[in-house]
Amino acid sequence: MNINISNRNSSKPDGYNFFTQTIIMTLTLMVVGLILPGVHITNVFVAIFAAVVIAMLNNFLRPVLLLLTLPFTIVTMGLFIFVVNAIIIWLAAKIVPSFSIDGFGTAFFAALLITIINYLLEIPARWRSRGEYRNNDENDDFAEYEEVTDENKD
To answer: What are phi and psi of 38, to 5 degrees?
Structure first.
């Protein structure tokens, strides 16, 4: 669910920019709105605006929340991050008009679904970048391996 504004120093594949992330988050929000009865999104434009707001909250508020909840995250072995994601989604629902979530439990399940669906929607981009990585290994810029021996041995 994490959306970065900047593509620098990112673990995301090349070409995976803010526009692509917003489209993926918009599609994800629309699917979650269809699956979960407690998530209400009136139209695509609301989903786009909600995706942008979630991106902004992820970039500015999420690092602070992760730092404040670090002890809980360590004790739960990382599972508390879903609670942080639910807080982000719940706040986005409070900010964006025509996007509502019935309660925090629904926000938690929405965060879980968004994580799973985002992962599934990112697979093609990962495969594409994996193929580019393999193609870069086949270039002939490097010499063949040759054994180096120490000629000054006694």
So the answer is: -90, 0
Which tokens is 33 given? 């709105």
- Mean pLDDT, consecutive 10-residue stretches, the chain (154 aa), reads 49 63 90 94 94 92 94 94 95 94 94 90 76 56 65 66
Predicted local distance difference test score (pLDDT) of residue 107:
94
Closest alpha carbon to 26 in 54, 6, 4: 54
Q: For residue 152, which amino acid is it?
A: N
Residue 134 amino acid letter:
R
Give domain status of residue 1, yes or no. Answer: no
Residue 65 structural domain: 18-135
**Cβ atoms of residues 24 and 122 within 8 Å:** yes
Does the residue 6 lie in any domain? no
In the block, residue with structure tokens 């991050």: 81
Nearest in space to 62 (alpha carbons), one of 119, 5, 121, 122: 5
- 8 is a domain residue: no
pLDDT at 39: 94
The total domain count for the chain is 1
